[in-house]
UniProtKB/TrEMBL annotation, chain A:
Residues 5-232 form the ABC transporter domain. This is ABC transporter ATP-binding protein. One of its GO terms (cellular component) is membrane protein complex. CDD domains: ABC_MJ0796_LolCDE_FtsE.
UniProtKB/TrEMBL annotation, chain B:
It comes from Wansuia hejianensis. It is found in: Cell membrane. Its main location: membrane. The lineage of its organism: Bacteria, Bacillati, Bacillota, Clostridia, Lachnospirales. This is ABC transporter permease. Keywords: Cell membrane, Coiled coil, Membrane, Transmembrane, Transmembrane helix.
């Protein structure tokens, strides 16, 4: 399968001198198209930092990131914003929906911000798959946690991004709802042949991924392909 | 760890907020201290200047006697008694009086040259007296001082009554009585008897009267009255007493019957002293020249010395006067002017003592009979009855009265500053109100208190706002402190300590900062504004200011402190936004979610926050524009009094018409004085009789006549003057006014000819005097127009001069409002009794002694002229002095035209001495010589001593009077400037504090937006889009605030203008009036500049905080939610 996202020698440090903290140490990673990746690690292992760098939300101290062979951090701010708008979808732990907008407005926001026409067919498919068709005119604070996360996933999916990055998407949900959301993400990956990178500290959740990347103290310690249970 | 350490470390962790609060409290102290010191300094300067000018004494008893002096000296509350005994008035030095050390101390005299006299033959002269008397003396020179003390003469009436009785007993009958018989006979001659009986009766009566007459005819054929002779005798006995020569100048009159013995002894014994003067002569050495003070002190009409001698020097005079053998003058009192000072009571001294020192009963002044005393006149009555003598005096009074009346308005052209009513204090015991005016209610004092109050409120609000936002942000930390066991009292203690730290910075930086700023302002004004401000700190006010600053901090902290202790340990104090539930629709139309729309939705949900920041913006710009407007309004008094009236800086006046050659020479001389910008000269002729066909029906003049007290009517209407009864109607029915003579080449002519509102003036005919310009103010009938209003003569005379009398009477009675103001041209009525093109008659009296010397000026000069143009109102800028006084029917003619009516005004002083001219004007020819007026303008607003001296010198050299309006204009200007500075400080302080509040609100709002910004960033919203958005929001907020503040200010101005207007104008008219007249000097450029500055600042305040946030990565912004 083609590599869609490639991180080369990515490092991220915070602070200076004695207070210097190395969140990521010379990390190299390849994300393949259509594959559901899970990044796993303990709290403070650097998994969220890695995810944010992969999504262009945060800049590394050094190293390169290629999205479909385009060097992400060589882009200007505006181009980077447009890249995020068009080619990356995010799902956050705290949903990050805009409270003043309805569900449908939240979902379509990335497309509208990009002044693109909405692909009605794709939109309908997404909302029906996520089961939020009845809630489109609701406001986020009128929804349950699971429903909110579904809306967040729908928002990430609707602009047909090259990759979806999900940061602990079940962190704010109860176990049952969390399981449902993970199942949904797994189904979506298959349904839409969507590349997904999910960060979690829960091994059980990681089991649902096609590939599991383990981070220990800012370093990738293992990459396991669940389909053949092969350690890379 | 101690509570104060927690507070201190907490402050370090919130650097921006801490800095903002420190800035607010420091600024608050800086501005409070600055405004207080500035106010104290201006007040102190004013009061010091007042003491220098008006003396330091708190109260004075003027024209007191020894008994009063003794009593005052024994008063326990009085610490210093300055005594000046007034010896009398001298020929060269004015009033001569003594002084003591205390008087010098409390008088705060300033010596122009030399020293105070110490010996009995030394004298110190007042500078203005030297100029007045043309003395060219210097220190060290000798001067012969001759003090003349007029003595009251005996009772002339009683003397004449006794004499008349004596003559009658000797068989002399008065001419008056004989004339009565002659008149009776004449009447009998004129009778036409209708019957024989009647004819007989008349004849018998005639015979009887004839016999009576024969009886009075003496042997030699003289009538008995013709036997009365009179002799005048003058003698001047003198005596040398020490170094004083006392001369008694006695004028005797002696009436006797022809043949009786007459010699000086007889006259001295039996004659009447009609005039007696005691002259005290002594030679003095001038030791000093004193700066002028006598015209400045608050002494009313009482005389104070123009020349000071020592008490020993004074004693040489009193010893001579009271010890002379020439006569007993002990009935004459040389009064004491007693000046008092009290360390304890200060200006309240008068209040505490005035009931103990009532006014002295003034002796009725001896009638000035000597001026009109004519023995020939009284001789006619001698031999008559007592009633005849009484009648003689009554007739004399009746003759004198009109002459006195005419002299009553013999005022100079110059008018007092505002033409306001002036009260004359005639009390002996008086307060020094000029040196100690009541300042507690002064504008500056009120303004300073207002500043403190406003800065107090603004600071408290700013502290409140910043602290409250901070408390909300610190809620987690506060909860943490509570959760680990901090009590409410400890939380309060932490915040209180934070307050103390802020206060420390505020006081340590703000107070010295305020001191430094005030030093810069005071010295800056002295250097650049040519002011002479004294740096002064008023401790009580300063303490009040510091207290206000401290209180504002802690009051501002109260609510945030309550908020802090009420933060719950669990849950949240904020509520989720409320949405309006949208109904689901089948074919719902989805709104396109542009970035603008996303922001609009956000705004709709956060209206409250948005309106708070908008409100603060609005308050800020309102403060700024109000400050400009209030500063502009501070100049209203200056603008209305000086600028709108075109008031000149100096007015110089000659009491006669100056010759054209001299006028030219003077124009050149004055023009060469440094700083003189322009000189305009004109001539004035008073007592001009104006007549026109329609004058009888002239409503304004008729009402003026109705309102005038009866004694003053003859000053304006000839029909009240019996002297003109026999004259043609254009004299007997004339209205009395003035004529102004201006040159056709002058700026005045340019101004007046441009101001003509009806008709057109022919330049050549104007020049020859055939055409004139008539000044007739517009009028607006008032509410009392048909009611009877009565004014007393004294009230009118004390409140008005001849020019503003009509305006004053109409205003006071509410009959009319008069105006020369163009702004009212569409609303006021224009007088139309006289129209342009009409012919009017102008006449003047010859002012001669007619008919063999016993009647006064009834001959006249007449001229028919055409009214070329009428001025009803002046264009903006007015025309001094008319714009200030609004006299009616003033004639403006060429100088030639004016001189034709006043032929004696052509020659200048000629061979006449100024005192002779003065005497002629005072007694015989008040109007014959006209007057000459120069308006002098200079190039700066500040009073200049050198310029004053140069102009004073020109005036003195030519015997003119000079009036310095520049000083009062400068005072008005500086008062306005002080107010502007205080208002400016207030405005700047309030605006800066409002800006800090706004900035803090925006920062806080932006921080709350961080998460949302992060989400949008994650969705691909670019930095440019964010920047544009915040710039747009800033521009809309700033723009809207600008528009609303300006509209609000305009509305307030419109409403106040409408309510303060005398007339009801249309809305359009009112707006036009506001822009053309009320705002005619408004600093639009400053207004515009500050509006632009505010707009840019608002945009920056919205943009800059957002810039800091959007430059962060989306992750950092999203994470902020959990901070």
């Amino acid at each position: 399968m083609a590599v869609i996202l490639k991180a080369v020698d990515i490092e991220k440090t915070y602070g200076k001198g004695q207070l210097k903290v190395e969140a990521l140490k010379s990390t190299n990673l390849e994300i393949e198209e259509g594959v559901f990746h899970a990044i796993i690690g303990k709290s403070g292992s650097g998994k969220s930092t890695l995810l944010h760098i992969l999504g262009g939300l945060d800049k590394p101290t050094c190293g390169k990131l290629y999205l479909e062979n385009e060097s992400v951090f060589d882009l200007k701010d505006k181009e980077l914003a447009i890249l995020r708008r068009r080619r990356i979808g995010f799902v956050f732990q705290s949903f990050n929906l805009l409270q003043e907008h309805t569900v449908v407005e939240n979902i379509l926001m990335p497309i509208h911000l990009d002044s693109r026409e909405v692909d009605e067919e794709h939109f309908n498919k997404v909302i029906s798959t996520l089961g939020i068709g009845e809630k489109l005119n609701y406001y986020p604070d009128e929804l349950s946690g699971g429903e909110r996360q579904r809306v967040a996933i729908a928002r990430a999916l609707v602009s047909k991004p090259a990759i979806i990055l999900a940061d602990e998407p079940t962190g704010n949900l109860d176990e049952k709802t969390g399981d449902e959301v993970i199942k949904l993400i797994k189904d979506l990956a298959k349904e839409f042949n969507q590349t997904i990178v999910l960060v979690t500290h829960d091994l059980e959740i990681a089991q649902n991924a096609d590939r599991v990347i383990t981070l220990i103290d800012g370093e990738i310690s293992s990459v396991i392909d669940n389909s053949d249970s092969q350690k890379i | 760890m101690k509570i104060k350490d927690i507070a201190k470390k907490g402050l370090k962790g919130r650097k921006r907020d801490t800095l903002l609060i420190k800035l607010v409290i420091t600024l608050s102290f800086v501005f409070i201290i600055t405004s207080i010191i500035f106010q104290s300094s201006t007040e102190k300067t004013k009061s010091e200047q007042a003491l220098d000018l008006y003396g330091q004494w708190h109260a004075a008893y003027l024209e007191g006697n020894e008994e009063i002096l003794k009593k005052l000296k024994s008063e326990k509350d009085i610490d210093k008694v300055g005594v000046s005994r007034v010896i009398g008035e001298s020929d060269k030095c004015g009033v001569v009086g003594t002084f003591n050390k205390e008087l010098i101390d409390m008088g705060k005299f300033s010596l122009y040259k030399g020293n105070y006299p110490t010996k009995d033959n030394e004298i110190m002269l007042e500078l203005n007296q030297m100029s007045k008397m043309n003395l060219d003396l210097d220190v060290g020179q000798k001067i012969q001082v001759a003090i003349t003390i007029p003595r009251t003469t005996g009772d002339l009436k009683q003397y004449l009554k006794d004499l008349s009785k004596e003559f009658r007993n000797k068989g002399v009958i008065s001419a008056y009585e004989i004339n009565k018989i002659w008149n009776e006979l004449r009447k009998l001659e004129e009778l036409k008897p209708e019957s024989e009986k009647e004819k007989k009766e008349i004849e018998e009566k005639k015979i009887e009267l004839g016999k009576k007459l024969e009886k009075y005819q003496g042997d030699r054929g003289y009538w008995s009255y013709q036997q009365i002779r009179y002799n005048n005798h003058h003698e001047t006995p003198f005596e040398q007493i020490g170094d004083v020569v006392l001369i008694s100048s006695n004028n005797y009159t002696y009436f006797y019957i022809d043949g009786e013995k007459v010699n000086p002894e007889v006259i001295r014994q039996d004659g009447f002293i009609e005039e007696q003067k005691i002259i005290l002569k002594k030679e003095f050495i001038v030791t000093g020249i004193l700066q002028t003070y006598s015209d400045k002190w608050d002494v009313g009409d009482y005389k104070v010395p123009n020349a000071f001698i020592t008490e020993e020097g004074g004693k040489t005079f009193t010893d001579a006067f009271y010890g002379t053998k020439i006569g007993d003058f002990s009935d004459h009192e040389m009064g004491y002017n007693i000046f008092l000072s009290s360390d304890l009571l200060k200006e309240n001294l008068y209040k505490n003592l005035h009931t103990k020192y009532p006014d002295r009963t003034k002796e009725i002044e001896q009638d000035t009979i000597s001026k009109t005393y004519d023995p020939w006149y009284f001789a006619h009555y001698l031999g008559g009855t007592e009633q005849d003598i009484d009648k003689a005096f009554k007739e004399l009074d009746a003759w004198k009265e009109p002459r006195n009346k005419e002299g009553e308005d013999n005022s100079l052209e110059v008018i007092d500053e505002l033409g306001k009513e002036m009260e004359i204090n005639l009390s002996n015991f008086r307060k020094n109100t000029l040196a100690y005016p009541d300042t507690t209610g002064s504008t500056e004092y009120v303004l300073t208190l207002t500043i403190i109050a406003i800065i107090f409120i603004a600071t408290a609000l700013a502290i409140f706002q910043i602290f409250l936002t901070q408390m909300k942000r610190r809620s987690r930390k506060l909860v943490l402190l509570k959760s680990i066991g901090a009590t409410k009292a400890q939380i309060l203690n932490i915040i209180f300590h934070e307050g103390l730290y802020f206060l420390r910075t505020g006081i340590l930086i703000g107070v010295p900062g305020g001191l430094i700023l005030s030093v810069i302002i005071v010295h800056g004004m002295n250097i650049f504004g040519k002011r002479d401000l004294q740096y002064h700190i008023e401790p009580s006010l300063l303490l009040l200011g510091i207290l206000a600053g401290i209180l504002s901090l802690f009051i501002g902290m109260v609510v945030p402190m309550i908020f802090a202790i009420k933060i719950p340990l669990v849950g949240t104090m904020s509520k989720p936004p409320k949405h309006t539930k949208k109904k689901l629709k089948e074919n719902r139309k989805l709104h396109y979610q542009s970035f603008n729309r996303i922001n609009w939705e956000y705004f709709k949900l956060n209206k409250g926050k948005t309106f708070i920041s908008f409100g603060i913006s609005l308050i800020t710009i309102t403060i700024i524009v109000s400050t400009i407007f209030l500063s502009y309004s501070s100049f209203n008094n200056y603008k209305d009094t000086v600028m709108a009236n075109s008031r000149p800086d100096y007015v110089m006046e000659a009491i006669y018409g100056e010759s054209s050659r001299q006028i030219e020479a003077l124009e050149e001389e004055i023009g060469e004085i440094q700083g003189v910008e322009s000189v305009e000269v004109y001539k004035v002729g008073k007592q001009l009789f104006l007549w026109h066909n329609n004058l009888k029906e002239d409503k304004i003049l008729n009402d003026f006549e109705k309102l005038l007290p009866k004694e003053l009517k003859r000053n304006y209407f000839n029909k009240y003057n019996t002297s003109y009864e026999e004259f043609d109607k254009y004299i007997s029915d004339a209205y009395i006014t003035k004529v102004y003579g201006i040159s056709k080449d002058s700026k005045n002519f340019e101004k007046y000819s441009k101001a003509i509102t009806e008709g057109k003036i022919d330049l050549d005919k104007f020049n020859t005097g055939e055409e004139i310009i008539l000044l007739a103010p517009m009028y607006l009938p008032g509410e009392n127009i048909n009611k009877d209003v009565v004014f007393g003569k004294r009230e009118v005379l004390s409140s008005t001069n001849e020019d503003n009398r009509m305006d004053w009477l109409f205003n006071k009675s509410k009959y009319y409002k008069l105006s020369h103001d163009e702004r009212y041209s569409n609303y006021y009525k224009k007088q139309n009794s006289i129209k342009s093109g009409d012919t009017i008659y102008l006449s003047t009296t010859r002012e001669g002694i007619m008919g063999g010397g016993d009647s006064y000026g009834t001959d006249s000069l007449n001229k028919k002229v055409k009214v070329g143009g009428i001025i009803h109102y002046f264009p903006k800028g007015g025309a001094w002095p008319f714009s200030n006084t609004k006299p009616n029917y003033i004639v403006i003619s060429s100088i030639t035209g004016m001189e034709k009516l006043y032929p004696a005004s052509i020659y200048g002083l000629g061979k006449t001495e100024i005192n002779e001219m003065q005497l002629m004007i005072d007694t015989l020819h008040p109007y014959k010589f006209g007057r000459t007026i120069w308006h002098i303008n200079t190039d700066s607003k500040t009073s200049d001593v050198v310029q004053d001296a140069s102009l004073l010198s020109v005036a003195h050299n030519n015997n003119y009077t000079i009036y310095n309006y520049k000083e009062s204009s400068s005072r008005l200007y500086h008062e306005a400037f002080n107010n502007v500075l205080i208002i400016g400080l207030l405005g700047i302080t309030a605006a800066i504090i409002a800006c800090i509040i706004l900035y803090n609100i925006l920062i806080s709002k932006m921080e709350q937006d961080k998460n949302r910004i992060g989400i949008l960033q994650a969705m691909g919203v670019t930095k440019e889009e964010f920047s544009k958005h915040y710039i747009k929001v800033g521009a809309i907020t700033g723009g809207l605030a600008l528009i609303i503040a300006n509209i609000g200010l305009a509305l307030v101005f419109l409403l106040t203008s409408i309510t303060s207007m005398d007339i009801s104008m249309s809305l359009g008219g009112t707006i036009k009036d506001i822009f053309l007249y009320k705002l005619w000097l408004y600093p639009w450029s400053i207004h515009l500049l500050l509006c632009i500055l505010f707009f840019v600042l608002t945009v920056l305040m919205y943009y800059l905080p957002s810039k800091n946030i959007i430059k962060q990565s989306p992750v950092e912004n999203i994470r902020s939610l959990s901070r």
